[in-house]
Design brief:
With about 475 residues, the chain is an alpha/beta fold. Helices cover about 50% and strands about 15% of the residues.
């Protein structure tokens, strides 16, 4: 097809005009070629013919397009209000984005660091560091954010515990100066008690020598091992006993001989007796606080199997928390019938007949933090004693801001229960028989239970190190 046969509608038209040509310019067959177009390489006939055709097409196109553009302009409608709002909002946000990027890319002016920076430089630096830290947390792994929250929470708990400990130490010193400690304690004036992590007091009686020997043969270290455990790990283990109704009698002399051999007793200014366990517990905590500056104080019966490594590792979890009361929490019935075991003479104080006690740790084994032991030491002359010592301890703490920790690892049953848990990787901290409130026939069975449920040698060091690292 020749160029002269091409329809005018197929030529490129922009806004009613041929691109690059003014609509007011009329082209005729005799118009000269534009200065930008060279006729080199074309014959005179071909060039003349092309110029005529091109000029004719331009005039026709401009004549037809001008009325159409006027019609379109007449039909044009104004933008709706919604479109205007959307366009403005889009432009605004695009502007913010571009301006923010330009601000970040632009370097600070060199002359801005001067006298003004001396007054506000530190504040701007801290603000910038804080913003960068938050920006990293926002863009980082969610685990990093949770770790940051956990560290902050632990720091707050540690600070709270420090304040609570200082308050208790101040109260203890005031009580000592005012004669508020109602029991004789082996403290030396002017000397601070030695530091320890935990003091484990094993409640025992004059007639329980075989029980004590069964523990020394299993989980209670002897001699040099006992001393190293105390000095290197801060774990103090003592058999706790008072004196007989006739001080200096045969019972007391027997304990003197045993203590001279084993060096593992803690002697209390207390008259021994089964119905005096609440008084003995109160006196034990008072004497222990005055003798050792420990994080925790544990009371355990001499017919219970204990894994020292697991016990210390579990207590280490609560080291930064103030006012902690750890044990197997229970709420047994208040027994009002006379003559039955665990009879409560003051049953009427717990409400109507058939009521249950408030939640408290079972008496076989429990632990309290230093601030709670100090509270008992300060206030022990006025702390009421109920018939059962575990109920008495719970009553002393029930009205305080205390965290009750129900740790079922402290009340595992004897084999096969504790043995199965050990095989599953959940070594028990303490084991006993609920039916006997301790291990039934403990003297005969303690060695077998230790073999089946014991944690093994070196567990104290390993578990304690792992807990400290955590």
């Amino acid at each position: 097809m020749r160029s002269s046969d091409t329809p005018a509608s197929q030529h490129t038209v922009v806004n009613g005009r041929i691109a690059g040509i003014s609509p007011n310019h009329s082209y005729s067959a005799h118009s000269e070629a534009p200065s930008g177009i060279s006729s080199r390489g074309l014959s005179n006939g071909t060039y003349e013919y092309s110029r005529r055709v091109f000029g004719s097409v331009l005039n026709d196109a401009l004549t037809e397009r001008q009325p159409q553009s006027e019609k379109k302009a007449a039909r044009a409608r104004p933008m709706s209000a919604k479109a205007v709002v959307v366009l403005c909002a889009t432009s605004f946000f695009v502007g913010l984005l571009l301006s923010g990027r330009m601000t970040l890319l632009m370097p600070p002016p060199s002359g801005s660091v001067g006298a003004a920076s001396s007054g506000h430089g530190s504040r701007l630096s801290l603000f910038s560091d804080d913003c960068e830290h938050r920006h990293k947390l926002d863009e980082g792994n969610p685990n990093d954010i949770m770790n940051e929250v956990s560290r902050t929470h632990q720091a707050i708990q540690s600070l709270d515990k420090s304040v609570s400990s200082l308050e208790m130490e101040l109260a203890v010193e005031r009580a000592k100066q005012n004669g508020g400690l109602g029991a004789a304690v082996p403290s030396k004036r002017g000397r601070r008690p030695p530091r320890a992590f935990v003091v484990i007091g094993i409640n025992t009686a004059f007639s329980s020598k075989k029980r004590r020997d069964s523990l020394r043969d299993t989980w209670v270290p002897r001699g040099e091992r006992l001393r190293r455990l105390e000095e290197e790990k801060g774990v103090v283990v003592r058999f706790v006993i008072g004196h007989s109704a006739t001080p200096g009698g045969a019972l007391d002399r027997a304990i003197d001989v045993e203590d001279a051999e084993t060096r593992d007793f803690m002697r209390l200014d207390h008259v021994e007796g089964y119905h005096e366990l609440s008084s003995k517990t109160r006196t034990y905590f008072t004497a222990a606080v005055a003798t050792w500056d420990a994080d925790f104080y544990v009371k355990v019966d001499d017919d219970v199997h204990v894994n020292l490594g697991m016990l210390t590792s579990r207590l280490a979890r609560y080291r930064t928390r103030p006012r902690v009361y750890v044990g197997c929490m229970k709420s047994g019935p208040v027994l009002s019938q006379k003559g039955v075991k665990y009879h409560e003479p003051e049953y009427w104080k717990f409400g109507d007949e058939g009521n249950r006690y408030f939640r408290h740790a079972t008496g076989q084994i429990y632990a309290i933090s230093k601030d709670l032991a100090s509270y008992i030491s300060i206030n022990q002359p006025i702390l009421h004693r109920f018939a059962n010592e575990d109920v008495s301890l719970g009553a002393w703490l029930i009205g305080l801001e205390v965290e009750h920790v129900d740790d079922r690892s402290l009340c595992c049953a004897t084999p096969p229960d504790c043995e199965w848990k050990k095989q599953a990787g959940n070594v028990c901290a303490a084991s006993f028989d609920w039916s006997c409130s301790g291990i039934c026939k403990s003297v005969d069975r303690m060695r077998a239970i230790h073999s089946a449920c014991g944690e093994g040698d070196g567990a104290v060091s390993n578990n304690f190190a792992a807990a400290a690292a955590a």
